[in-house]
Every structure is written in C-alpha cells, then in structure tokens.
Input
Amino acid sequence: MKVMVDGNVPAGGGLSSSAAFVCASALAVLRANGRRKVKKRELAELAIVSERAVGVNSGGMDQSASVLAIKGDALSVAFWPKLHSANVPFPKIDPPITLMIAQSFVTSDKQVTAPQCYNLRVVECTLAAVVMAKLKNVKLPQDSSPLEYSLRGLQHVFFNGQYSNEETTIPLFNSKTPYKDQLQKMLSLVSELLPKEEGYTREDIATKLGYSVEELEKTYMRLPVKAERFMLAQRARHVFSEALRVIAFKEILLSNPSHLLPRLGNLMNETQDSCRDVYQCSCPEIDQLCSIAQEAGAYGSRLTGAGWGGCTVHLVPQHKVAAVRTAWYQKYYRLRVPALTNDEMEEAVV
Output
C-alpha cells in the first residue's frame, strides 16, 4: 500500500486527531483489501483496539465519536455491556447555542507522556476498581476496558451481581436502585474503601490484592507507568461524579428547560474543576484559557480530549463571542505566543 495522509486537526490538540487517523487508516486498509462496506460499530471497535496496539490505553469515546456522530448533534456513548450510542439533538433556541474551541498550543502527545499521564490514569482507575472489589470480596467481570476491568463493571456487579455458567454472585445492593442513586452510592464507597487521599504505593496495593509487587506490575502495568503513588480515590471520584454530570447534561438537552445555557455551562465548569483538581489532567495554560473565557462572559469552559494540553471548549452567548475572542488574544495569545499571525489566530479559535 502507498498511503498519503492529510488533515487539518492539530496533532496533540485534544480534538481526537489520533482517533480520526486510526479510523481513516482502518477504512483505507479495508478498502485496499476489497472490503467495500463495514458496520459503523464494527469500525469503531476495530479502531479502539488498533490504537491500544500502538501503545495507548485508549478508552473508545473518540473513535466512537469519529465514526458514529452526526453533524449538529451531541453523541451519548456507553460501553456497558457493549458499545452503543445515541444522538442527542441540541435544542433549537434563539439565539442558537454557540460553542467555541480555543487551542492552548501546549501539545498533548499521548504517545510521549502516556507513562505519567494518560496510561497512568487508566492504571489508577483500573486499580481503584480492583481494590474496591477485593475489599468487598466481589469478583469483577471482565469487559472491553484497556486492562479488562473497570469502575463501570464494579458498579454493575455491586448492584446486579454476576450470573454465568461458572459463577453466581449475589448483588451487594438493591438492583432496583435508580442509576443516579447508584452513582451516589459508589461515591460514598470510594470514601469508605479508599481513605488514603495521599495515594497508595505499589506495596500498598499489592498487599491489598494479595500479590507481590512484581505480579501487580505484570498484571496491571503492561505498558510503562511512572508513579510513586497511585491516587485511586481521586480518580474513582472523578469518574463517578463525571458520570453524574453527563447524565445531567443529557437530561437538560432533552428537556430544554428555562435557563438552559447557564445550567449546561455550570456542568462544564464543574467538569473542568474536577479535571484540574481531582483527575489532575489539566494544565496551567488550559486553566487560564477557561478563566479568561468565563471572565469575558462564557457560560461554561472545559478542556477537551485527554487533557494535559491541547484545546478547550466553551459555551458562549452569541453576543459575547467577539468579547471572548478579544480577551483570549489580549490576555493569552499575545503574551504566550507573541509570534502568532492573524491567520494562525483564526485557526487557533473556532
């Protein structure tokens, strides 16, 4: 095969450039080998495992969005018990919902920084699930997560048990508990079962699981990670609280209530706070872009993609778009990227 690659999504920009590249590559290889049609979900799943094969413990949201999204709609994606998605239309309001994207010019290269950033978070979330399951004497079900176990799987087995030909597990909690209440309960369990806010060493985790440190690393650190302490409580807390925010965001879009934009914006701001302080995947430049936008009139601001750089997304009243753009130029781009041309500025903010 001879392949030419072209595109205008900035690499490391937090706009799913790697997922877009993998999805396009998969389509090209299929076509070159005579495959003219492929189911969208099949393509998304192929792209997910392909990105993991080149060294990134990718989840799957970006690939799913690349393949399954419809222009103009939000996309709700879930991976339990298998990949499924639903398009969520944005309400028709006047003036219309306006989203702005701003580039920080801090490159978020998952391939380079993965051991102390992206892959480390995957390991921390997995270990949080495994340790909590062990402390409650529950066997986790394997799923399609990068390391085969997930906090979502933990929630499922806590509230639904596990039924298979090999084993039956009785649920610890009422299976009829509403989903949002399940998430609140999981947040309480995080505080109960993972009390060490200073984090856990390899020795701490190995002891809880009944492993040697070498067995722990071989099982859950197949790709290199760099950390003295693993912040299990904080990562699990972010995951469950973010799930609650996703549900709330979707409910607001579908119900189209009064004060829709401020309510959506508040959820975006809460996510950014959690990404900065709890999941710790933001960076000073991202924080600054969000603060500038909010001061200039944005309803909500947050990072996009995996974090640690890249782009930000902002919910902005239409009459404040120019003010936000000007504020970014004066308070961020002119100071941090003084050589930025007018054309580059046009590409930096859309």
Q: What stands out?
A: The chain has a mean pLDDT of 91. The two ends are 35 Å apart (CA to CA). The first strand starts at residue 73 and ends at 78.
